[in-house]
Design brief:
The complex is a heterodimer. Chain A has four helices and six strands. Chain A is an alpha+beta fold. Classes of the chains: A alpha+beta, B alpha+beta.
Chain lengths: ~120, ~450
């Protein structure tokens, strides 16, 4: 079953220079193992291809049911240098939530994941 | 020793709510009010003010904020910790003293002024002494842009703030200090935490991180279940109820809007975070992977389990420098084919600038309403549809040649009559040329920076 991350996670993003960070948080604690397994560095790198110019880093915070991604070269120089509407990376969070995952149907059922959750 | 110390956040950045400080001291009992006035390049703006007038260079909004909470400070024992001093903490203190006198409470206000963070006058000496002050992102030495430097301030930690409180101040004014120190320092002071109480200092830092962006942890900018967050117009700013053991509860005053929940606090915890194992501050390195959260009541989230370890031997330095000019012009194109019209306007504009021989370091075009926030990603995930009611063409240019930027600003309006059709949204007039003041983060050895605390 194809789901968007928006169905199982919320997120907030910010900036540090030309890097945007996206904290990705499971909507329910029981969905974190799925996120931890499926939202890999490679998939996030592919997802942001063309949107950022640098590397991606990935960190885990199991204590908060969250992952943290650093997206380098994301902000056209960042801060006051940047010409972007989103110069401070505040909506890279929702950009990540657009990402699609393919999960086995039985797992979706077991976890009670539905498309339609959280208005998706 | 108090059992619980209540630190309230009254200001998340320069430009935050003017009402929040007063609401925090009037909405219920608090012990400390924490106010953060300094964004990355604020210091350079304040530096320019000080160059024009030696009695300026601090965040003037702070005087109004203090006026709104003065009774609470003078009569109810609330203490204020603020980095409003900017590049002129003594002048800020003088302004507050004058305010207190005008309100006849001067004898009840005792101000500690923290200085020593300002390195601007010492840069030549520091560089000659081998302190390269390399840009943390690019590795370039500061010398490369020495002539363009406008301000240089080290991020000071909690120690001088603790000293100010120990010497009896009820208002502590700093220049540049870490935002988290503004919250951690009063806890360190009240509970007598030692300089190597790593876990408790780390807990204070985490409390500071949760409080430092104001309502962003109490329902503001909260994506989780956002439609059901009550009464944002009256959002309550967050408060940390802290105990000596380093555990604390994040809450807000009763009868306020917003929501303090595990999701709202978690969103703030991951905000502007790098490697979570190493949240580095001058006082301690906090491990954000040790933080535990538990909802213990409505709008009450307990935070516990935090561990920390010794800090590095460096301080972060925030340097602001002149980095050219920029301008942004916008026009709105309407249905039908709004995006196509906007795209054509962009091509026309770029060709005209090319023919004029205008050179820029960067030209950036965005289509607001179509792809400005998520760019190419939108097409890839199949989100794009072409039937927009309107699209805003947004073109920005950046470069060292002010004349080129200026000329760009005059090329927007003509498009209204000599470009693609169905255009509006130009009543704002010609875009302004802005001088770019950019941020240069560097590191310096702690042992070359010494702070001093004066009671005034």
């Amino acid at each position: 079953m194809k789901i968007r991350l928006l169905a199982i996670a919320h997120a907030r993003s910010g900036d540090k220079g030309d890097t945007a960070n996206v904290g990705l948080i499971a909507l329910r604690p029981e969905w974190f193992p799925l996120i931890q397994r499926e939202v890999t560095l490679e998939r996030v790198r592919d997802h942001f291809e063309g949107m950022i110019t640098g590397a991606v880093e990935r960190f885990e915070l199991p204590n908060l049911n969250a992952l943290n991604f650093l997206l380098h070269g994301a902000l056209d120089g960042g801060g006051t240098l940047s010409l972007k509407t989103d110069a401070q990376g505040k909506v890279f969070s929702t950009a990540l939530l657009r990402m699609s995952l393919d999960i086995p149907d039985n797992e979706a059922v077991a976890l009670a994941v539905k498309t339609g959750e959280n208005g998706t | 020793m108090k059992e619980i110390v209540r630190v309230a956040s009254g200001q998340g950045f320069w430009g935050d709510s003017l009402e929040a400080p007063r609401q925090q001291v009037e909405g219920g009992a608090v012990d400390y009010l924490m106010l953060d006035y300094l964004a990355e390049v604020t210091m350079s703006i304040l530096q320019k003010q000080k160059e024009r007038d030696a009695s300026l260079g601090y965040a003037r909004d702070f005087v109004g904020a203090m006026d709104s909470v003065l009774t609470a400070v003078a009569e109810r024992g609330v203490k204020v910790i603020a980095n409003a001093g900017g590049v002129n903490p003594p002048a800020c203190a003088a302004a507050i003293r004058k305010l207190a006198e005008s309100r006849s409470v001067s004898s009840k206000i005792r101000i500690a002024v923290v200085t020593g963070d300002d390195l601007l006058g010492r840069l030549g000496q520091l560089i000659a002494g081998g302190h390269v002050l390399a840009n943390m992102e690019t590795g370039e030495p500061l010398d490369a842009i020495r002539g363009d430097v406008l301000s240089a301030n080290a991020y000071i930690g909690s120690t001088p703030i603790v000293e100010g409180l120990t010497r009896g101040a009820n208002v502590v004014i700093t220049g540049r200090s870490t935002d988290t120190a503004l919250t951690m320092a009063p806890l360190r002071y009240e509970f007598g935490w030692g300089a190597s109480d790593w876990d408790r200092l780390a807990a204070g830092i985490v409390a500071g991180h949760i409080l430092e962006c104001g309502a962003q942890s109490s329902g503001g900018n909260c994506l989780y279940d956002w439609r059901s967050i009550p009464d944002l117009a009256n959002v309550g700013y967050p408060i940390a109820d802290a105990k000596a053991d380093g555990t604390f509860v994040i809450t807000k005053h009763p009868n306020t809007g917003g929501r303090v929940s595990v999701p709202s606090v978690t969103e703030q915890l991951v905000y502007e975070m790098g490697d979570p194992h190493e949240y580095i501050t001058p006082d301690v390195i906090a491990d954000f992977t040790s933080i535990r959260l538990r909802e213990t009541g409505e709008n009450r989230v307990e935070v516990f389990g935090i561990t920390g370890r010794p800090p590095t031997d460096k301080l972060k330095v925030s340097i602001a420098y002149r980095a050219g000019f920029k301008a942004v012009g916008t026009l709105v194109y309407s249905w039908p084919d709004a995006l196509e019209k906007a795209e054509l306007a962009d091509r026309v504009l770029r060709e005209r600038m090319d023919r004029l021989g205008l050179r820029f370091d960067q030209i950036l075009t965005e289509y607001v309403g179509a792809s400005a926030t998520h760019g190419v990603l939108v097409q890839r995930v199949g989100g794009q549809h072409r039937d927009h009611p309107e699209v805003q063409l947004r073109v920005g240019v950046r470069g060292g040649d002010r004349n080129a930027i200026e000329r760009f600003t005059r090329e927007i309006a003509p498009l209204v009559l000599n470009g693609p059709p169905s255009v509006t949204g130009f009543a704002g007039g010609r875009p302004k040329v802005e001088e770019i003041v950019a941020y240069w983060p560097a590191l310096i050895d702690k042992n070359v920076v010494s702070t001093s605390v004066e009671i005034v």
